[in-house]
Amino acid sequence: MRAIRVASAALLGVTPLACSAPTAVAGNITPFDFSVQPSTIPAGGQVTLRLDRNDGGCKGPATVTSAVFDTVTIPPGRSRARAVVDWDAKPAATYQVTFSCDGASGSTDLTIAGGRPTSRPVPQPLHSRGVHAGEGGTAAGFDLKEIGLGAALIAGSVGAAYHFSRRRQGEDSS
Predict the structure, then answer these.
(1) Which helix (H) or strand (E) holds 171?
(2) pTM, whole model, 2 decimals?
(3) How far is CA 66 from CA 8, 39, 48, 152, 160, in A?
(4) What pLDDT is recorded for position 10?
(5) What pLDDT digit, counting tens, does each position of 116-150 carry?
(6) Which residues are the signal sequence here (predicted)?
(7) Are 159 and 153 in contact (CB under 8 A)?
(8) Among candidates 69, 52, 71, which has minimal Cα distance to 110?
(9) Which backbone phi and psi does 30 adopt, to 5 degrees?
(10) Do residues 74 and 81 lie in contact, with contact meaning Cβ atoms separated by under 8 Å?
(11) How far apart are CA 44 and CA 62, in angstroms?
């Protein structure tokens, strides 16, 4: 039990340090922050390209380029996009990823891990055929007891409302 507390405290102490680490390579001073997560990935893996738009340094579309994946555009109002690393990326190689926005650009590194995923990722369509709503339980089975009880409750509620409304009218006229 004590080990869990110590590990939790250590993790909570290290997290702010990890989050405050610089995201760009030294010498890349841009009016916006950017990062590639994870910074080490196997060939064929998927990375998240993050762009910090909170400080106002990037208002327009951002273009992210690299020799290891297709060019990605992050539209205005969005702060992240995904890219799939090419299958022919060389293990243990480091590739440069360049973020460009509003005339400024900066680069960071993406390292390819030694192994490769066991299967190729299946591209997911942006829009599927839609939601299959309204099928579950609506006509699963007609239980006459439940229908009768529901009808009795509704009739009782309507009857009670009518009774009390008529009673008030009688009291008001006297």
Answers:
(1) helix 144-173
(2) 0.51
(3) 37, 13, 13, 69, 73
(4) 47
(5) 555 555 555 555 555 555 555 555 566 788 888 88
(6) 1-26
(7) no
(8) 69
(9) -130, 160
(10) yes
(11) 23
- Number of other CB atoms surrounding residue 69 within 10 Å: 21
| The two structure tokens encoding residue 97 | 């990823």
Q: Domain 35-113 has what CATH class? A: mainly beta
- pLDDT class of 6 with cuts at 50, 70, 90: very low
Cβ-based neighbour number of residue 26 at 10 Å: 6
Stated as kind and residue range, the H or E segment containing 108 is strand 104-112
Q: Say if CB 59 and CB 102 are below 8 A apart.
A: yes
Using DSSP bridges, classify how beta strands 69-74 and 40-41 pair: parallel, antiparallel or unpaired.
Answer: unpaired
94 is written with which tokens?
Answer: 């480091």
Give me the residue label for tokens 């509003």: 102
pLDDT at residue number 9? 47
Instruction: List the strands of the sheet with 62-66, edge to edge.
Output: 40-41, 104-112, 94-101, 62-66, 69-74
Residues whose CB falls within 8 Å of the CB of residue 140, separated by 6 or more in sequence, listed in order = none
